[in-house]
Amino acid sequence: MAEEQPTDVGPGHLWLEGKTLVHLRQDQDRPTHMPRGPAKRTGPGFLNPAMAPARTRSVLLMADALEHSWLTKPDQPLRALDALCATGVRVRRWRNEIPENHQNRLRITANDLDRFALDWLNRSHAAFPPAVSVDHDPEDDRYLRPVKGAMNNGIYTLQNDARMTLLEAGYQWVDLDPFGSPVNFLDAAVQGLARVGFLEVTATDTAALTGSSQGSQFRRYGAKGIVDSYAHDDAVRVLLGLVATTAARHDRSIEPVLALFDGHHVRISVKVRRSRESASNVLDSIGWRIRNDDGTYRFVHHPTPEEVERGSGPLWIGSLWDEHIAGRMTEERVLAVCSPTKEEIEKAKKHGLAWNENDQEYAARELRRSVRYISEAAMLMAKDHTLYHMDDLPNMAGTGQAPKMDALFEAIQEAGYGAARIPDIDPFLVTDAPHEVVMGCVRERCHS
Ligand SMILES: C[S@@+](CC[C@H](N)C(=O)[O-])C[C@H]1O[C@@H](n2cnc3c(N)ncnc32)[C@H](O)[C@@H]1O
Fold first, then answer.
1. Helix (H), strand (E) at residue 195
2. Does 42 contact ligand 1 (Cβ within 6 A)?
3. For residues 381 and 173, what is the distance between their CA atoms, to the nearest angstrom?
4. Distance, CA 43 to ligand 1 centroid (Å)?
5. 307-320 confidence digits (pLDDT tens)
6. Between 381 and which of 99, 226, 321, 373 could a Cys-Cys bridge form, CB atoms 3.0 to 4.6 Å apart?
7. β-sheet bridge partners, residue 389
8. Nearest CA to ligand 1 atom 10
């Protein structure tokens, strides 16, 4: 464990996530760069460093929404709520890392039931304030009843059950990051959104989402799974399916912008619009994934009883990403928005951060990893495509070995189709090439 550092926030030590100084509890180990899996310990004040990439993407998406005005007009404010904010690392990153020219449009509310966590947030935000102070009144007049919130340099904190906060004011941006399943909060989240809104949902109950825990999958998501190479994609689509049908019950429809299986959790980001007509068409995007004899799959709307046996669903069968927004999530962009400058690191060191050249290099690598493969796969993930697990290809093509990924992508592209890797922990090819073309390319590259 790193030596204890003196901080102006009490005992503990400091860590840098993106550009944001995070105060960690004394008994939490210094995080490693590129952590995987759930945190070893949880509870008030514990930061889960494995969620850093998801928070980084949240910063990038919000910066993109403000820059490209896809949620609000260029002169309008964007009201954002982290409904289960814990110690507020995400909201503090929004305040510290979204480019300065957009900060005056952001109205950030951070809610949690836990007083200890909110106090931690407020102390950290006061001790390590954003580069530019934010000065606007709390928007407490938008709530249905008098609320007891606190304004701290552009972050308004509330201590409520998240469902109350969600229902009491119309937000354009809602983040739901619970422990485990988000199902308890979905109705309130959708109802609480403005006419056009953006909803980001984390689910860590991957056993239920993939179907490895069948009972919980059926109870929570009303779905049936098959645990095979497509289980990660199924998990993403099962969650999207529930969010879509929940939205439809409240006369809204969804448009996925980004949806990922990120190791130990699923994270989906969707635009939500109020529209009875689109909501009525929700079943057009819900169906089943049926496994074919050749190892591939097809999506159907209404499976026969025989197909149900070899199928997973119901789940979302529409597109998964927005080509343009995801296409802009490049490594250059993440470094430009979230990587600290030398001056910012020096300033952080004056607060007591222990950070050397290696830390800086690893942190930049971790930032790049948060968006790795996304922009290259964006076009394909935004339309009809097929996924192939690289380990399945030798059996499917009868080659006994898999070609190198890059060589295979090149062959598919030379054949006139798209091919890219997706950001999953396992190596997956996404392509719009017909199956025979993919098999031909596998055989060609295995024998060349
Ligand atoms: C996984 S943590 C959130 C992590 C945080 N979003 C981040 O990025 O660091 C879940 C939080 O939900 C809070 N919580 C659980 N049930 C709640 C409820 N019904 N209303 C409000 N907060 C709740 C817990 O206190 C905990 O801080």
1. strand 193-203
2. no
3. 23
4. 10
5. 999 999 999 999 99
6. 321
7. 428
8. 178
- Reduce the DSSP state of residue 324 to 3 states and report it: helix
Q: What is the DSSP string of 420-444?
A: EE-SSSS-EEEE-S-HHHHHHHHHH
What is the number of other CB atoms lying within 10 angstroms of the CB of residue 392?
Answer: 18
Residue nearest to atom 13 of ligand 1 (CA): 84
- Better-predicted residue by pLDDT, 2 or 13: 13
Contact 210, 232 (CB under 8 A): yes
User: Measured between alpha carbons, how far is 56 from 128 in angstroms, rounded to an integer?
Assistant: 19
For ligand 1, say whether the CB of 114 is within 6 Å of any of its atoms. yes
Partners of residue 300 on adjacent β-strands: 288
Encoded tokens for 45? 């004040």
Residue 288's beta-bridge partner residues? Answer: 300
φ/ψ of 254, rounded to 5, equals -115, 150
With a 6 A CB cut-off, is 179 part of the ligand 1 pocket?
yes
| Phi and psi torsions of 21, nearest 5° | -75, 125
What six digits make up the tokens of 138? 């709390």
- The single-letter code of the amino acid at 383 is K
23 Cα–ligand 1 center, Å: 18
Q: Return the structure tokens found at 54.
A: 């998801």
Bridging pattern class, strands 106-111 and 78-82: parallel
Rounded Cα distance between 325 and 58, Å, is 12
8 Å CB contact between 316 and 353? no
Cβ(93) – ligand 1 distance below 6 Å = no
Q: Regarding predicted confidence, which is higher, 56 or 448?
A: 56
123 vs 14, 27, 79, 127, 398, CA distance in Å? 13, 18, 23, 6, 61
For residue 82, report the distance from its CA to the centre of ligand 1, in Å.
Answer: 9
Percent of the chain with pLDDT over 90: 84
User: What are 419-438's pLDDT values in tens digits?
Assistant: 999 999 999 999 999 999 99
Query: Quick check: 165 pLDDT over 60?
Result: yes
* pTM score above 0.70: yes
Q: Which structural domains are found in the chain, ordered by start? A: 49-325 (3.40.50.150), 385-447 (3.30.56.70)
Distance 166 CA to ligand 1 centre (A): 13
